[in-house]
Design goal:
This protein is 22% helix and 21% strand. With 449 residues, the chain is of the alpha/beta class.
Length: 449
């Protein structure tokens, strides 16, 4: 019998521009860039140079700390450039793709016959192991660790997030193969939503399926870990996004690195929100060129509105990105009479506007913060949207103070920055909570090395 966990804390933000469940065709311009920043905690060492010919599956860079962890090219072609920023930080490796892709053949494998080490070695050789993250620290996983469990969340419930069930259609065998491969390395848990009914999810084999019934962020893998098998000091769990499970399954079934993913192109400023098949690292210009409604300034986000990164029309699809979101920037808004007006078209968590009377209304919110940073207000705001057994406000204060002992006592090993995304949205203090939590995790990681 499937376990069901009911969550009551959280918040569903109903935004305009959700992607329709249909796909649009995209003709790529052949420009791709794999970005190390997509893999948190990785210090890249580039293994190719300008002019090199690569195949799909050729490593473009490795992790300096763990040289066995490679990061595979999504396409075959010629290395155009290695883009560097301040202090020669590697921002990405650009590849001009061939018209017809060539793949390195890693050999088809029957995962049922493989040991845990053979599964791990296959992922390492193919440059896909870096798509596995770990708690604590919410960084790319260390291959030398032995996780007590592996968690996959197939529930995406952030605002305008892509529906994984839609992406899964026609790829059920790849998904099951990927889950079986993960289960070889540790006990694997699959978290799904109450409304998800696909047999590939509800009847998945070799994993323990748990249904999460509640508002966002029930789909956050950190929330699911907290309710199933919390992370204590000295313990490690691995977390894998569901599309990466498809990557793994394709590798074992075909012997090739195939980094196609189905991305939701959404947001109130998108002309026709829909889904599109893209490769990791693909340039966004073709997708965005004729798809934005207005000429006014917009915010293009690689990811969802709460946890994604700001990008441009010439940006590239992140390795873990399942949606490209376009919303108004908001810096050209002239609000006559300001707060005095009833603001029927603006959203308020605290019912400050009369818009709360219109249940089900969809909002075209912009990117404004609407206020400057203030002192922390201990009002319990975070607790109302934070469905984990952690005192979020006290943890944030401990991180700001740099008190490592308090951070450990308050459960920092269990959290990742995305778990604080909703708390950041409702925060009256306007603090960048995700940045603060990331800094705290990095501090702790450095201290424990």
């Amino acid at each position: 019998m499937t376990n069901v966990i009911k969550l009551r804390k959280g918040l569903n933000i109903n935004l305009a521009g959700k992607a329709d469940k249909k796909k649009i065709r995209l003709n790529s311009n052949g420009k791709y860039m794999l970005q190390p920043d997509s893999f948190t905690g990785v210090i890249p060492k580039v293994t190719v140079k300008q002019g090199d010919r690569v195949k799909a599956g050729t490593p473009l860079f490795i992790d300096k700390n763990y040289p066995s962890v490679k990061f595979a090219s999504p396409v075959s072609g010629i290395v155009k450039d290695v883009i560097r920023g301040d202090r020669r930080k590697v921002l990405g490796v650009q590849v001009m793709a061939d018209a017809n892709l060539e793949y390195i053949d890693f050999g088809k494998k029957n995962v049922s016959d493989l040991s845990a080490e053979e599964v791990k070695d296959t992922l390492l050789d193919a440059g896909l192991f870096g798509y596995i993250n770990m708690l604590p620290y919410a960084v790319s996983a260390n291959p030398d660790t032995k996780p007590k469990a592996i968690f996959v969340s197939a529930l995406r419930d952030m605002p305008l997030a892509a529906d994984f069930e839609f992406e899964l259609q026609g790829q059920e065998d790849d998904f099951q193969t990927g889950l079986t491969a993960l289960s070889k390395m540790a006990k694997t848990y699959l978290g799904i939503g109450k409304g998800q009914t696909a047999d590939a999810l509800t009847k998945a084999k070799d994993v323990e399926v748990t249904v999460f019934d509640g508002p966002c962020p029930a789909g956050n893998v950190g929330v699911q870990v907290n309710h199933i098998s919390p992370v204590n000091k000295g313990e490690v769990v691995w977390t894998v996004e569901p599309t990466a499970v498809l990557f793994f399954g394709r590798l074992f079934r075909t012997g090739h690195v195939d980094l196609h993913r189905t991305v939701a192109f959404a947001g109130s400023e998108v002309e026709k929100p829909a889904y599109v098949d893209m490769l990791v690292g693909e340039e966004l210009s073709t997708l965005l060129s004729n798809s934005i409604k207005t000429e006014r300034k917009v915010r293009i986000i690689d990811g969802n509105v709460l946890t994604g990164r700001q990008t441009t029309k010439n940006g590239f699809l992140g390795a873990h990105t399942s949606e490209i979101t376009v919303i108004p920037e908001g810096d050209d808004v002239d609000e006559f009479a300001g707060w005095i007006m009833p603001r029927l078209n603006q959203y308020s968590v605290n019912r400050s506007y009369f818009s709360w009377l219109f249940r089900g209304k969809k909002y075209a919110l912009d990117a404004r913060v609407k206020g400057g940073e203030r002192h922390i207000i201990m009002s319990g705001e975070y607790d109302r949207v934070f469905p984990m057994d952690i005192y979020a406000e006290y943890l944030v204060k401990a991180i700001i103070a740099g008190d490592i002992d308090k951070m450990e006592q308050l459960g920092i090993y269990e959290v990742s920055p995305e778990d604080f995304a909703l708390a950041e949205f409702v925060d009256s203090s306007k603090l960048e909570l995700q940045r603060i939590v990331r800094a705290g995790l990095d501090m702790l990681r450095k201290e424990n090395e």
